[in-house]
Amino acid sequence: WFRPPADLTARGWAYNVFNITNSLYTSYTFELEGDATGSQGADSFFDGRIVVMTKDGAKYSKMTMISPLEGKGTIEVTPEDTQVLFVVASVPEFFGSYQHYSYQIKISLT
What we know:
It contains no helices and eight strands. It is mainly β.
């Protein structure tokens, strides 16, 4: 599992992108586990997306979110899919602060 440092973690209504340069026939599994509250105590809410850059352009997939804090998604790729992006967005209901919303991710070859 990887947890971004606090100064690089998304604030409310912001996102982080994790880039994979791909050259394989494989599947990637992405997992997200968010902390329950932000740095100033507001409830967290996350959304995840997987973007594959294909020879025909970008292909977007939603991560299956089993709760506002947890999600998982798997994508199959070929060597022609040269870039895979994992987007973690913080979308809390609270708008009035500068707090960070921490999480951890896991990316696995499957």
